[in-house]
Amino acid sequence: MKYALQLHDVSMSFAQKEVLSHIDLQVESGEIMGILGPSGAGKTTLIHIVSGRLKQCEGSVIFHRDLETSAYRFNAMMDTLGLYDRLSVYENMEFFADIYHRDRSDIDELLQRLGLQEATHTRCAKLSKGMRSRLSLARALLADARLLFLDEPTAGLDPLSTQMIHRLLLAEKAKGTTILLSTHHMEEAQSLCDHIALLYQGKIMEYGTPKQICMRYSCGTAIHLRLNNDMEYTFQSQRDGADQIYQWLKEERIASLHTQEASLESVFIQLTGRGLQDHAHHHIDMEETAKRDIAQ
Fold first, then answer.
1. 120 in a domain, yes or no?
2. What is the number of structural domains in the chain?
3. For burial by CB atoms within 10 Å, which of 206, 224, 251, 283 has the most?
4. Predicted confidence (pLDDT) per residue in 264-295, tens digit
5. In what order do the strands lie in the sheet with 74-77?
6. 123 within some domain
């Protein structure tokens, strides 16, 4: 098995506050690896470290060279990674095309793929949040990197923009690009990621495929049903409800029935006692210190 990226015993602190603690992680070549956790869990700091914007206090980050190239190329999409507000959409892309030594003919194709073709001459400062995010992704894709670091690329976006970015990421994966994606959206992680690391208070609490993680914490499959009289019932296991459900089936009284397995949200609650969104509102975000320091 070939790994694009390996982290060994990586730790990071700001002002005596530990933000990452002894992180061990392996990212397989050609996969989408998800770092799932609430605000303040350490996701952004981790992305900053692997992309070279921060130096970890302890541990090592190892990039594995591709067998067909002399160097492993990577790029990143982060909210603090610059777009130039005074430049137009196209001028921003031109600037980075020159840096990445890419043909300017690639710009039109990327803007088309990300639905930005009609905003070509719009100054970046006048773009909506969704359009800025798409432009930031276009800039990252322009480098034709073999490894992409994406820090919450769909945060705060509308469903259509989110779907567009998801399609782009799956297309990049199909090309063989390795993607390290941080997110606090469970549905995004579950639908996009091959493997997930659940990050909480700077530590990896769980790792595996979405299905593997959910199966480890599944206590059975809950059954939800609604009768013809609109009464609703939930049985926490198939064994608990078997006799009653069988009786209702014979009497043709069931209007709808569905099952619910363990989700990433329920696993996270089991591990931490609180949901991801709750943590996003209650946790003190030490990563803001890192963001401010890097921006300065």
1. no
2. 2
3. 206
4. 887 888 888 766 555 444 444 545 544 455 54
5. 74-77, 147-151, 178-183, 32-36, 195-200, 203-208
6. no
Q: Is residue 128 part of a domain?
A: no
Long-range contacts of 208-217 (CB under 8 A, 24+ apart): 210/264, 213/264, 213/267, 214/261, 214/262, 214/263, 214/264, 214/266, 214/267, 215/262, 216/267, 217/262, 217/266, 217/267, 217/270, 217/271
What are the C-alpha distances in Å from 157 to residues 3, 133, 183? Answer: 31, 8, 13
Structural domain that includes position 288: 3-73+145-215+264-295
Pairing assessment for the beta strands 3-14 and 232-235 based on DSSP bridges: unpaired
Q: Is 179 in the same domain as 256?
A: no
**pLDDT tens-place string over residues 183-225:** 988 889 999 999 999 999 999 999 999 989 888 876 556 788 8
Residues 168 and 195 in one domain: yes
Q: Examine the domain organization and report whether 234 and 194 are in the same domain.
A: no
Nearest to 133 by CA among 172, 168, 108: 168
Q: 76-122 pLDDT, tens per residue?
A: 888 756 799 999 999 999 999 998 888 888 999 999 988 899 999 99
Q: Is 209 in the same domain as 281?
A: yes
**160 and 236, same domain (yes or no):** no
Task: Tell whether 53 is covered by a domain.
Answer: yes
Q: pLDDT of 28-82, one tens digit each?
A: 999 999 999 988 899 999 999 998 889 999 999 998 766 445 445 788 888 756 7
Q: Which two tokens stand for residue 95?
A: 């600037």
Q: What phi, psi does 176 have (nearest 5°)?
A: 100, 5
Determine the length of the chain: 296
